[in-house]
Structures are given as structure tokens and as C-alpha cells.
Amino acid sequence: MKYEAFVELLEQDINNGRYDQDGKLPSEDVLIESYQVTRYTLRKAIAFLVERGQLYQVQGSGIYLRRRAKKGYFNLDDTQGITSESRGINQNVETKVVSLEEIQFKDAAFVPEGLSLSPETILYFVKRLRLLDGKPFVVEHSYYIKSLVPYLNHEIVEQSIFHYLKEVVKLKFGFADKIIRTEKLTQEVATLLELKKDDPTLVIIDEAYLSNGALFNYSKLYYHYENSEFFMHATMK
Q1: What are phi and psi of 84, to 5 degrees?
Q2: Is the model's pLDDT at 22 over the cut of 70?
């Protein structure tokens, strides 16, 4: 089994409660036999899930499950998008595409501080409303660099864009930088979130990079202040 498929399956088993009774994973040998993976693949996956906040290791004792967040709380450490994160907390995400267009970088309504691209760089500009269990959750203004993301259409952006980029386009994701701040809602975003102009919103600015360090996406996300709750994991050293 390939590493990516194993991580997805192991995380799914953890989220579905397969190991809840013991509160820990079986031994390495048992996991290797159960999932038919190499020891290297197993340890790489465990390290990833430890970093993601799903597991923690106690030397000489084993690998334990971390307490999962309550329903409705989203992990700020997640870099795979809302659709991926929602599966772990068993909530339904619905996507409404507001617009999809090609623009030049010089015409972008929003540019993260310090970001510099050629003015003629072609971007896909995507506006989406995401609903969580039927309630407005977040409005996304996302920009994808077309030279790295060569094709998007309405059908693709109705689903998980990151899943499409990973599984179909075969992009190798690297890391993401996030800035978190508060703002007042514009009329356009307030209408989509079913709030009032100048209501408060938590804004997260994302910059997503490939494994070679190339920026392929940046986004500005406006969260509904009543329908959004978050958590993040931290390691004390």
C-alpha cells in the first residue's frame, strides 16, 4: 500500500473509532501485518499523524490517541482544506460557487503582504461559499496560479480543489503559511454569510506552496463569527 493511501486509511480508522477501546494503536508489527505496509511507511505515517495532532508517542509504552476535538471545531493546523477536515468530525460540507474567472495578477482584489508576482501572471480567481451542516460557514476568495494549476472548471471547484490538485494534477504539496486577523464584513461577504455589513469576521490568509517551494495558491477566508470554532495542537518542549 502506498504511503498516501495508508495515511488516509489509518486516519479514517482512527476517526471511526477503531482504536478507541484501548486508546492506543497496536504494536508496529501488528500494524504492519494488518495494513500490509513497510516499517518505513508506517513510521512516516505515524510521524505525520503525530504532527497533525491525531496521535502522541510515549517512549517505551506505545502510540496513543489524542483527544479528538468536539463536533464543529476545525483544526487550524490543517492544510488540506475544509472538505478533508470535515470528514474527521463527521459534518457535511456543501459548496456554492459564486464565481470562477481568469484574471491577471495586477487585477487581483487582494494580494498578501510581501507577495510579488509578474503583473501579467494569469490566475484563476474562485469565490465560494461553504456551508457546514446547512449553515453558512466561510466565504473563500482563492487565487490559483495557472502555470501550476492549468485547469479549473465549475464542476471541479464545487468539490475539493485540493483533492483534485493532489490526485488528478499530481501536485506535490509542501507547506502553508497562515495569517489570522479580524475585520469587518463588506456588504458582499455579509450577504453570503447571512450577516450584516460591518459585523465582525475572523479572517485567515493562506499561502500554499509546493514541495519545491513554489507558491501555487493564496486565499482570503472570511468565517462566520457565530458558526465557526477552531482549535490547534501545540507541542510543549
Answers
A1: -65, -45
A2: yes
Tell me: the pLDDT tens digits for 97-136?
Answer: 999 999 999 999 999 888 889 999 999 999 999 999 999 9
Q: What is the pLDDT of residues 184-237, one digit of tens each?
A: 999 999 999 999 999 999 999 999 999 999 999 999 999 999 988 887 777 666
Distance (Å, whole) CA 105 – CA 88: 35
Task: State phi, psi for 191 to the nearest 5 degrees.
Answer: -60, -45
Exposure class string for 27-43: b at 16+ Cβ within 10 A, else e: eeeebeeebebeeebbe
**pTM for the full predicted model:** 0.77
- Cβ proximity of 97 and 137 under 8 Å: no
Residue type, 34: S
- Tell me the residue type at 53: G
Whole-angstrom Cα distance, residue 170 to residue 162?
10
* Among candidate residues 186, 213, 208, 212, the one with its CA nearest the CA of residue 197: 186
Burial (Cβ within 10 Å: 0-12, 13-18, ≥19) of residue 10: buried
Structural domains in the chain plus CATH codes: 3-65 (1.10.10.10), 74-231 (3.40.1410.10)
